[in-house]
Amino acid sequence: MSVMLSASGLSRRFGGIQAVSNMGLEVATGSITGLIGPNGAGKSTLFNLLSGVIRPQAGKVLYKGQDVTRLAPYKRARLGMIRTFQLSREFGRLTVLENLMLSPQQQLGEQLFPLFSKSRAVAQADDVVYERALEVMEIAALTDLRDKYAADLSGGQKKLLELARTLMIDCDLILLDEPGAGVNPALMGTLMDMIRRLNTDYGKTFLIVEHDMDLIGKLCDPVVVMTEGSFLSAGPFDDIREDPRVIEAYLGGVLLD
Ligand SMILES: Nc1ncnc2c1ncn2[C@@H]1O[C@H](COP(=O)(O)OP(=O)(O)O)[C@@H](O)[C@H]1O
Ligand SMILES: [Mg+2]
């Protein structure tokens, strides 16, 4: 088994709150690894440490064996490790196709210059980018929505577009923070199919932080559980859900049914 991402000894405090404490985890190449834990367990903080949005006070993050602990998110993205970013208001004024055809820098949320007009997006585009956008829209089931403004998409369609944007950049590891949040049940299947297909047909490795146990159970293996900022357990979902320590950690929170 080869390891694509590994973190060890990660710690991050906010004032008096130890959000993440000596946390470690491994994401195997080719896996869809899930990360769960009760509210306040430190999942989002860990996610931000792994993607580079915030820095740890201690610990290390290795991507394909390279120390990326202090690298900015866009630099990690250039190495092939990418996280989704929420569509900002400016992106809402562009169509689905235009969103995909923007430069990688803008897709990474690294806006060096204000996005003042659509023609900017189009001017930057060449045939290769256009062809790729068509292919990506097909994968993401967005082809029929290509001329729709991103702002007018449903919550689930926006998630598909956010995920689709990552595919415009060459990447091997995709980090998703709650991809299922705000997605209606009808689109949930489409979203899960897309993730599965990107994994099996396109070889993408995933780390997914998610509340929705249905998504976790159907897509993720292994599932890593954290509680109170630290590693609790990891394994197949069916084992995890029966682990007494996991059940105890969730008591008073969302129970695994
Ligand atoms: N920027 C921040 N400032 C202060 N406290 C924070 C900040 N981010 C997270 N926390 C705290 O750290 C703990 C872990 O939060 P978080 O990582 O969001 O957990 P989860 O995503 O598992 O619900 C919580 O107690 C939360 O209130
Ligand atoms: Mg969170």
From TrEMBL:
Leading EC class? hydrolase
- One Pfam annotation reads BCA_ABC_TP_C
Database matches in SMART domains? AAA
* Originating organism: Granulosicoccus antarcticus IMCC3135
Query: Sorted alphabetically, which keywords does the UniProt record give?
Result: ATP-binding, Hydrolase, Nucleotide-binding, Transport
Q: Name one GO cellular component term.
A: plasma membrane
Q: What is the lineage of its organism?
A: Bacteria, Pseudomonadati, Pseudomonadota, Gammaproteobacteria, Chromatiales
Annotated ABC transporter domain residues: 5-253
For this protein, the Enzyme Commission number is 3.6.3.-
Q: Which CDD domains match?
A: ABC_Mj1267_LivG_branched (cd03219)
Q: Which Gene3D superfamilies does the record associate with it?
A: P-loop containing nucleotide triphosphate hydrolases
Alphabetical list of InterPro entries matching this protein: AAA+_ATPase (IPR003593), ABC_AA/LPS_Transport (IPR051120), ABC_transporter-like_ATP-bd (IPR003439), ABC_transporter-like_CS (IPR017871), BCA_ABC_TP_C (IPR032823), P-loop_NTPase (IPR027417)
Q: What is this protein called?
A: Lipopolysaccharide export system ATP-binding protein LptB
- GO molecular function per UniProt: ATP binding; ATP hydrolysis activity
